[in-house]
């Protein structure tokens, strides 16, 4: 579904403080399932996530979606791809204070031109699925951390994206809430969605919900030693 070919990403290119955050990434993200990107701070995992989600462009290399080259498209086309293909859950959730849960959820759909009644119906169905209907009209700043996360997930799903992108989604949650999030991931995976996220949380990386863990260090993918051993001696 998503393919990265020889991806390199530089910041401050051509300046004395030039820094290559990614240095030769080849990666395929299959359709469906949950993939986790992990690595120490500065390893490049968040930069890689932004390129996978078309939030940033690579300095070098190509990005393909369903076999089509998208990394060189003009921004207006990338904006449309993001809206139709991706949903985003950010570490701080980025909910808008003063708006209710349902208003936050339907906000990304306003540019589509759909009727408000249709958007509300779809948002309410998502709230019900994530057991949050009783918080529909509450201002998001009055919700608990776990409830805010579920609102953020509903917002990410409002346009029925194929791919959910999440950056350290459990970083501000305790173990119980992290496990609740994994339950939601299982639900999404069972629906046939693709989930790609960064996480340094062992509760996430070691979960049976996760299909694949990609380790990064210094802007490169670290080989899976178990897989290398199996290929060499299997």
From TrEMBL:
GO function terms (MF aspect): ATP binding; ATP hydrolysis activity; transmembrane transporter activity
Transmembrane segments: none
Protein keywords: ATP-binding, Cell membrane, Membrane, Nucleotide-binding, Transport
A GO cellular component annotation in the UniProt record: plasma membrane
Record-annotated ABC transporter domain positions: 2-234
InterPro entries reported for this sequence: AAA+_ATPase, ABC_transporter-like_ATP-bd, ABC_transporter-like_CS, ABC_transpr_LolD-like, MacB-like_ATP-bd, P-loop_NTPase
Stored PANTHER family: ABC TRANSPORTER ABCH.1, IMPORT ATP-BINDING PROTEIN
Protein name, per record: ATP-binding cassette domain-containing protein
Protein's organism: Azoarcus taiwanensis
Lineage: Bacteria, Pseudomonadati, Pseudomonadota, Betaproteobacteria, Rhodocyclales
